[in-house]
Amino acid sequence: MGAIAASDAGLVRERTEELLRDHPPARTPRRDFLAAQFDAGLAWVHFPIGLGGLGLAPQLQREVVLRLAEAGAPDGAETNRLGYAMGAPTVVAWGERAQQERYLRPLFVGDERWCQLFSEPGAGSDLAGLSTRAVRDGDDWIVDGQKVWSSMATISDIGMLIVRTDPELPKHRGLTYFLLDMHTPGVEVRPLRQMTGEAEFNEVYLTDVRIPDSARVGAVSAGWKVAMTTLMEERVLFNRQRDEKGPAEIALDLYRGRERGPELRTRMIDLWIRARVQRLNTVRAAANRTAGIPGPEGSIGKLVYAELNQDALEFCLDLLGDESLLYDSYEPHAYTEESLQRRGEADLRRRFLRSRAQTIEGGTSEIMRTILSDRVLGLPPEPRGDKHLPFSQIPRG
Amino acid sequence: MGAIAASDAGLVRERTEELLRDHPPARTPRRDFLAAQFDAGLAWVHFPIGLGGLGLAPQLQREVVLRLAEAGAPDGAETNRLGYAMGAPTVVAWGERAQQERYLRPLFVGDERWCQLFSEPGAGSDLAGLSTRAVRDGDDWIVDGQKVWSSMATISDIGMLIVRTDPELPKHRGLTYFLLDMHTPGVEVRPLRQMTGEAEFNEVYLTDVRIPDSARVGAVSAGWKVAMTTLMEERVLFNRQRDEKGPAEIALDLYRGRERGPELRTRMIDLWIRARVQRLNTVRAAANRTAGIPGPEGSIGKLVYAELNQDALEFCLDLLGDESLLYDSYEPHAYTEESLQRRGEADLRRRFLRSRAQTIEGGTSEIMRTILSDRVLGLPPEPRGDKHLPFSQIPRG
Amino acid sequence: MTDTMGVDDAREDLRRVVRQFLERRSTEADVRRLMADPAGYDREVWAVMADQLGLQGMAVPEAHGGAGFGYEELCVVFEEMGRALLPSPFFATIALAANVLLESGDEVACKRYLPAIAGGELIATLALGEEEGGWDETAVRMRAEPDGAGWTLTGRKRFVPTAHVADLLLVVAHTSDGLSLFAVEPQAPGCTVDVELTLDLTRPLSLVTFESTPAVLVGRSGQAWEGVRRALRFAAVALAAEQVGGAQRVLEMTVEYAKVRHQFGRPIGTFQAVKHKLADVLVALESARSAARDAARAVAEGDPEVELAASVAKAVCSDTFTRAAGAAIQLHGGIGFTWEHPAQLFYKRAKSGEFLLGTPAHHRDLVGRAIGV
Amino acid sequence: MTDTMGVDDAREDLRRVVRQFLERRSTEADVRRLMADPAGYDREVWAVMADQLGLQGMAVPEAHGGAGFGYEELCVVFEEMGRALLPSPFFATIALAANVLLESGDEVACKRYLPAIAGGELIATLALGEEEGGWDETAVRMRAEPDGAGWTLTGRKRFVPTAHVADLLLVVAHTSDGLSLFAVEPQAPGCTVDVELTLDLTRPLSLVTFESTPAVLVGRSGQAWEGVRRALRFAAVALAAEQVGGAQRVLEMTVEYAKVRHQFGRPIGTFQAVKHKLADVLVALESARSAARDAARAVAEGDPEVELAASVAKAVCSDTFTRAAGAAIQLHGGIGFTWEHPAQLFYKRAKSGEFLLGTPAHHRDLVGRAIGV
């Protein structure tokens, strides 16, 4: 249970101070600092030595992140969260050594941004029902199909891609995982406008896209397990507060500045308590996370945070009163380098609308509850007609 | 849509006044008054002439009930609600004329009290999974099995009984419906103590019980449809406020007498609004009910009322404060004639505990939601492995 | 309480006619076109509604050029408009302005404006809230200044529904006697109307600025609030009907999708998580319908508890519509979150409708006061 | 925040020992037997807890004859007692009385009573609320009268946990200096203890009447409230731990039932309605556990925000236990509503626990005050 030798913590602290001493953030270019951080094993301390890590307990990374933020150092995760939080652990867990050496450093230093190519129009909650096909062609694979809900695909270099390589196997078994160079011919990214007005996500059309077999992660037809690693990390990621202030703190600031009735006070206190307990949950889950890969418990945080955020932003609108009848801008725009930086400042009404997707993206709350029920509580699964059939014989609508 | 000729309403009013004139409630024995009411067709105005009715629209009964209550007349439903509200409509819908003549008058005038023998230990939500067996023996049937959740069985004369007559048919199809004389040898009623301390319900053990075929309602193996009529009426019954005051009114009285914070005010208003809307729903449903048998919409009222009642009584406990730590009496006792009369005065803490069963009895709230989804919204049913198998082959646990 | 067959039939006929018309003339494509249109409504549709269907004049008394139907019939029309998300100044003109005029007790103003409203020749609205919004008397700070025989207004009104196309603004302002009602024509000197960007693009709201703008007193100086308050409650009943219509439509849409969308090899509507969520929406919707119809009846019958019934309806129907539209987004999954999908149009209409004419919390508070809690 | 291996291991060892003991000595049959027993607890179990397991003295400081373990370890014991629904004066003696003594700052009283408590030789409790109940200073009206060198008490205290078996009552009453704490031995003249019929029969509460009963001042006259309040919060943390244990047990029981109970030809745990309801209970339970453990840590570390953490824990854990036990009744169906089934025992414990030491609403209000809301 989360046992950490004091000497490990000391080593990490020492290395971090050394990094800051040798590469003063104020005078070191971003890329140079991140490269030094990677080489010092402080990118992900629980990764192997030589791959950005030191082979230590994952909880120790928190200290590094906090210390570096305090010192004003750049954050390798900042503009490449999917690569940092989901791509890297997947490559470490399932990639070959050559792949780990090929991908991890460019990912961390900011040379290659990553995106995720999992969902399809016909495969949302039922991700294993995806139908994008890859057919072997010598040392390459030829991919055809359509992916959707791919955030940052317009500005990404590597796509975590899962495709069907054998439709005659049951649905979970005929899938293979690739790292797609997004600049390959045949990859077309179309921004997808959402109800907030902006286009945070994209559709990605894949037409006769050629991928070398060396970009395959895990064995042929063994892609589902690899994808599960990515998804588990995604749920942990969704549980994190991306903004400096959590929704309940934002609500509290707003609440303090306004006239308010007793009903609002009750709701404010309730939100504050929920946010506090959510933070305590996260701390406890992190303390229990000894291996590199989180378990289904990650679904608890994902579920709770999504609903808390929705409720807190709904509360903010109630505090704003009739200002909620207005909106800041419905101008459609796709994500760019600059808009990524601006995101934290999004208008509360925009964030409110955006929060509606939080109970959908990365696994709907319904799917999360089923996962908790089956994998944590150990209840027997629902009877499934589709699970053992060859994929080609499953009814689709 | 609820069209009622003014002349029908006039006829009912006239007959009611006539009844009251010819049988002044203050001077007429209970049984005599009810007999006269039955003979005047004012027991259930929508029943056929000669069977306690006048063949008119069911909504007109309300006027009769209100007028008679105002005049201090006895209420035929009062101590025999299951017979009045569920048994009688079932006999009218499915019984033969001779059965209608045999059962309706004694039921109404108070000679025979009815109870329901549907649920079994292994057949709750899945009522059609019941396994009490009846085997033909000449002009009789021999019944063996166990029923449960039978309220008033200790003091009843007739049991609405559904049993399996053919286990080789699919579960819904091998069932037959009988009216069991509760005084038949082999019928053993054992009170079942509940969390409130009292024994409102009973287990009913049936051992070699002989029932004449003349007590069968509907065709052999066609009992499911007959039972559905009883159940639909039960849901309408559960939607009715049995107490003079509804739970929100009780809460309001209690609320007015106490010191209270703003949180309680918000809850009080919310409960009051829910109760008001629930009443409006009931009125609208009654106005739409033109035929004798209610549709699946009855499930809405049942669902809403159960949850409203639970919430209102929970609120009452919060108003009572630390008094809620105490209880009035856990003395075990079964229902008797006298305790039936006392029921309305039950301690709020006892009613609070009792309310926990409201989302279970007469169809759980989960079952109600499935019914609304399938039969009102028209969503496709869940895949069912048990529906078409012979009953004898269905897994049971 | 029991409807007679005649009235019911007439209402269902009316519903059918309005629905058929709006299904043709307020399609999703129409709604999206008008969301981007500076006028924000279709003049031709407006004219057909007035000339052929007689909707604008339907509930206006015959004495003022209308057909004199009851409020329950009018609410059938609002239900259907809510269902079709019709972008139109109909709500502001009929639910707000016509009610405010009728409740003002000013026969001259009624005679002057109501026939034109009934004929579809006049678009009108109510300007009430100011910097901080709000829909009760505390929302009003603006003072009217006497100016010879008339008055002038100076200040700003916000959140004024469809003011950008209005021919008549009914403005609430203080005089030394108290809250008073004024008629202003937007082309009058010193009056400017700026459309604001709204969360719900199907219902434009404007910022209206007055600078010594001439205004005509409607009703008696200082005596306006009682009538305006009643009119606001009647408008809330119309809004509640709209919300019932919107909730009904968005539920139907979700049910249809749940029947055809397959995941895990079967329609998602076969999963209990989906079934039960939609059943809960159904239950809420039926309750909202009961509340809205009871409130319409209360307006029609002049029930002394009409304001209570209106507040119950506004609170319950607002919440229900948001819930139904939220469930629609959730159960459609990602597609329901896109700009291209209609679910978001209903969601934004629902969310805005919570604030318009007072939030559910505000109306619950009013209910509390009415029942002495 | 990170536990070191040693402490964690020790706590889990402790948990295992206590659980094994209670699984043998506080079975459902034992609990039901004690519900009908006038003493309401098992003296032999009490003795084993003290002599062999050292539970009574576990968190009592070594200076007062205890083992001086931390509050987090003590809360592990409370979790297990909640899990086993143990009927016992342990809660009143350890969570209430020992904390009140320790926080009273009265060294003489501590020396006199704590070693006996730690040794399991003394059962004690706190008498606070009066006619209307309540768990804050406004609950106390009783006045202590000076009587020579000592004091006498007259009046009634209600809802006093396990007072009927107590050797020592700690009573809060006013003196002219303010709220003060008194020690009373129940066999003292004028003191009568009447057990009341409780909703939760596993935790008897008494009405205690004093008539000129002699009492000994504990701590300084008028200075008691600060210490009593802190002790009440520490007791609330212990209660929260109990509630986590109870919720955990009742969830496990329901999960087991859902695996084996068949309806419609399959285990009911395969239905999403059941799955998702239990998943929600799991989420609530994990959150409650986080809140309870954080509060125990705050007591152990003397965190300045300990009272805030305690109120968060009491509010969240009370609600969670009621929810878990309510779901147990619902998902067991009719059988869960019967007297014979254990679900009702947990439900009544949960419901009572909401009121004991202040309702969730009361503690939410305290949280609000603490965060300036």
Quick structural summary:
The complex is a heterotetramer, with 2 copies of chain A (397 residues) and 2 copies of chain C (373 residues). Chain A is of the alpha+beta class.
The ordered H/E elements of chain C are: HHHHHHEEEEEEEHEEHHHH
What is the architecture of the largest domain in chain C at the second tier of CATH?
Answer: Up-down Bundle
Following the backbone from N to C, one meets helices and strands of chain A in this order, namely HHHHHEEEEEEEEHHHHHHH
**Structural class per helix/strand content of chain C?**
alpha+beta
Oligomer: heterotetramer
Mean pLDDT of chain A: 90
Total beta-strand segments of chain A: 8
Q: Report low-confidence residues of chain A grouped into runs of 5 or more.
A: none
Average pLDDT of chain C works out at 96
Number of domains of chain C: 3
Query: Distance between termini of chain C?
Result: 28 Å
The portion of residues assigned to helices of chain C is: 40-55%
Largest sheet of chain A: 4 strands, mixed
Per CATH, what is the topology of the largest domain in chain C?
Butyryl-CoA Dehydrogenase, subunit A, domain 3
CATH class of the largest domain in chain C: Mainly Alpha
Helix coverage percent of residues of chain A?
40-55%
